[in-house]
Amino acid sequence: MTSNPPADTPPTGNGGDSRSPRNIVLGVAGGIAAYKACHIVRGFTERGDSVRVVPTASALNFVGAATFEALSGHPVATDVFDRVDQVQHVRIGQEADLVVIAPATADLLARLAAGRADDLLTATCLVATCPVVVAPAMHTEMWNHPATRANVATLRDRGVTVLEPAHGRLTGADSGAGRLPEPEQIVALSLLRLAGIGLPQDLSGRRVLITAGGTRESVDPVRYLGNRSSGRQGFALAEVAVQRGADVTLIAGATDALPTPCGAEVIRISSARELADEVDARATDHDVIIMAAAVADYRPSVTAPSKLKKTSGSAPTSIELTENPDILAGLVDSRRSGRIGADTVIVGFAAETGDGEGSVLDHALRKIRRKGCDLLMCNDVGSGRVFGRTRNRGWLITPDGSATDVPDGTKLEVASRILDSVVRITAAR
């Protein structure tokens, strides 16, 4: 078994080829979230890509052409009659490797669905044969209107990736669904499409419970026992599951400062027992349960009520530990007993290192036999791999002992591969 390459190596150029930047068209519609497009431009250009911003005329009421030109290094035009000698309304779309529209207003969604070509952006979209990613942003009432829902369905039927919007503060005092996802989320999800990974609506109608991050077991009010998990893989699973149509609940322990997955309900916990309680309370209501959290195996038997001070002589020289509940095995037992549905898909994770008793894969194979889950994602976490990194790799293991290689990729890419397997398992039941 070969060792993993560094898990944090960023992709460069065209699919990892640094010789030629990818041509990305960023469409910007006239909504208050247009200012976030500036950060999206930067997100792509910092990866070595060439970005051409094509705003609507109304978008320039929010962000001036000079700003987009300075950030992208390309001229900005809005009308099909601009630079007619260069046939821009055809050429820009023909040369694009990816079209991203962020924000997309309700009006622009309607024009795209109708096949309009009354400005440079809509004409470009009609010409483009590359992947198209649309990030809507509007008030909740507009997003939920039957006309908008029909337009979204039409675009998705044509192969356009229409992202689910975030929930949160909108214009004025309003809050709800319709907020533009954070720029880094839009860039990352768009890069999935460039990698040839789709976001089909194959989890529509499914309720998916995902755990993420590490647990912290208190020693006293200041100190805790924990692990190096950042929560990135669990958050990536939630992000992709939502975009594939699932109703997602994310139970998150200690995590990095990660943006909330769009549309997911997030429940915060700290300890393994809190995680066990939340999973137990929700397991019966979900079709898929993915245990991506790094759960502490042990906790201090006694938690000091006040900080243990070195000078007082109360600081312990050792800490007695008690084993935490095995949440994954408990879920499998609940399915066997009929407490949760027999068709519930249960996915576990194994963060392993090789030792004298076996390789990483050996330990993972023993774990899936012991736990009894339907699928196990195994990671080699030795030498600083995986934890806290933006990339991942490993193996997907099934109960019959087969192991499928998951090649190095971003954690969103790995999440997509895991969910592909979940969809196959679900379809077979």
Automatic annotation (TrEMBL):
Region annotation (Phosphopantothenate--cysteine ligase) ranges: 208-429
Record region (Disordered): 1-22
Cofactor: Mg(2+); FMN
Domain Flavoprotein, residue spans: 23-188
Domain DNA/pantothenate metabolism flavoprotein C-terminal span(s) in chain numbering: 203-423
Gene Ontology terms describing biological process: coenzyme A biosynthetic process; pantothenate catabolic process
Keyword terms, alphabetized: Decarboxylase, Flavoprotein, FMN, Ligase, Lyase, Magnesium, Metal-binding, Multifunctional enzyme
Record text on cofactor binding: Binds 1 FMN per subunit.
Keyword Cell cycle carried by entry: no
Record GO terms (molecular function): FMN binding; metal ion binding; phosphopantothenate--cysteine ligase activity; phosphopantothenoylcysteine decarboxylase activity
EC numbers for this chain: 4.1.1.36, 6.3.2.5
Annotated segments matching region Phosphopantothenoylcysteine decarboxylase: 1-207
Free-text function comment from the UniProt entry: Catalyzes two sequential steps in the biosynthesis of coenzyme A. In the first step cysteine is conjugated to 4'-phosphopantothenate to form 4-phosphopantothenoylcysteine. In the second step the latter compound is decarboxylated to form 4'-phosphopantotheine.
Family, as annotated: In the N-terminal section; belongs to the HFCD (homo-oligomeric flavin containing Cys decarboxylase) superfamily.
Listed name of the protein: Coenzyme A biosynthesis bifunctional protein CoaBC
Native species: Corynebacterium meridianum
